């Protein structure tokens, strides 16, 4: 059965009908939260500094992964940077094209076969990894589609501040705090649960080094978030 395109439905309702009904995010680990659809259509000045810095650093042939409504791609196009935008949401790609994105495709990053100078993973870009066990696979695919002197620009958040300091932290079988299961709903339609990874910088750096990447902390945000740059180590 085809997964419901919750983001696509919400973006189309907002874009064509000015419907501001939010997407509801559900997780067994947290209280329900909301995603304001307007935020997915933000301009550069409305973006957090991690995203702004990533867009300033992007160069060459860029792949915008999980492009959503295309806000990052549109900014780069205005700077005459060549960008391909991909998303697994068919509705999101339709809206991105409506807004002026020139090269947009419904595609899973794990099926990408092109070659790029910059890979953009923004709005908690490590989420696409899903869980820690998939990190090596993710970085290997990045290596395949990245040009030799290319860069990965990826953001995430460190959720360790949510841990209870009073609880012992010696359970080796305990799930990493950044591994979260989510589902989303919109106007009575609900998605299946999916894994999403918030990865702290130290852990990302360790994984990068293990897979022959350099990893640099570019900027830290105001809410335990950060932007990192990864480049392939040259022998």
Core attributes:
235 residues; alpha/beta; Rossmann fold; five-stranded antiparallel beta sheet; 6 helices; 12 strands; transferase; Methyltransf_25
Structural class, from secondary structure content? alpha/beta
Give the ordered list of helices and strands. HEEHEHEHEEHEEEEHEE
Name of the CATH architecture: 3-Layer(aba) Sandwich
Please mark out the parts with pLDDT under 50 across 5 or more consecutive residues, or reply none.
none
Name of the CATH first level: Alpha Beta
Structure report:
With 235 residues, this protein is of the alpha/beta class. The protein has one domain (6-159, 169-232): Vaccinia Virus protein VP39 (Rossmann fold, 3-Layer(aba) Sandwich), CATH 3.40.50.150. It has helices at 6-17, 49-57, 71-78, 90-98, 135-145, 201-210; strands at 23-27, 30-35, 62-65, 83-87, 104-106, 116-121, 146-157, 179-186, 189-190, 194-197, 213-220, 225-232. The protein has a 7-stranded mixed sheet, sandwiched between helices. Helix 1 runs parallel beside helix 4 (90-98). It is globular and about 55 Å long. The termini are far apart.
Task: Walk me through the topology.
Blueprint (H helix, E strand, L loop, with lengths): L5 H12 L5 E5 L2 E6 L13 H9 L4 E4 L5 H8 L4 E5 L2 H9 L5 E3 L9 E6 L13 H11 E12 L21 E8 L2 E2 L3 E4 L3 H10 L2 E8 L4 E8 L3
Parallel strand pairs: 3-4, 3-6, 4-5, 6-7
Antiparallel strand pairs: 1-2, 1-8, 7-12, 8-9, 8-10, 11-12
Helix pairs in contact: 1-4
């Amino acid at each position: 059965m085809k997964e419901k395109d919750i983001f696509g439905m919400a973006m189309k309702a907002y874009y064509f009908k000015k419907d501001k009904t939010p997407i509801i995010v559900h997780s067994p680990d947290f209280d329900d939260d909301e995603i304001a659809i307007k935020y997915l259509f933000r301009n550069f000045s409305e973006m957090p500094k991690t995203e702004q810095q990533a867009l300033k650093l992007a160069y060459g042939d860029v792949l915008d992964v999980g492009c959503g409504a295309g806000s990052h791609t549109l900014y780069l196009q205005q700077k005459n940077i060549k960008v391909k935008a991909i998303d697994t949401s068919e509705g999101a790609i339709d809206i991105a094209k409506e807004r002026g994105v020139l090269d947009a495709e419904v595609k899973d990053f794990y099926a990408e076969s092109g070659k790029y100078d910059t890979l953009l993973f923004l709005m908690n870009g490590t989420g696409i990894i899903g869980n820690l066990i998939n990190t090596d696979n993710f970085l290997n695919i990045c290596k395949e589609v990245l040009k030799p002197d290319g860069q990965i620009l990826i953001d995430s958040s460190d959720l360790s501040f949510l841990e209870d300091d009073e609880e012992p932290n010696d359970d080796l079988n305990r799930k990493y705090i950044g591994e979260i299961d989510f589902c989303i709903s919109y106007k009575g339609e609900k998605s299946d649960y999916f894994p999403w990874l918030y990865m702290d910088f130290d852990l990302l750096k360790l994984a990068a080094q293990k897979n022959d990447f350099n990893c640099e902390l570019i900027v830290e945000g105001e809410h335990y978030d950060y932007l990192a740059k990864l480049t392939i180590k040259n022998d």
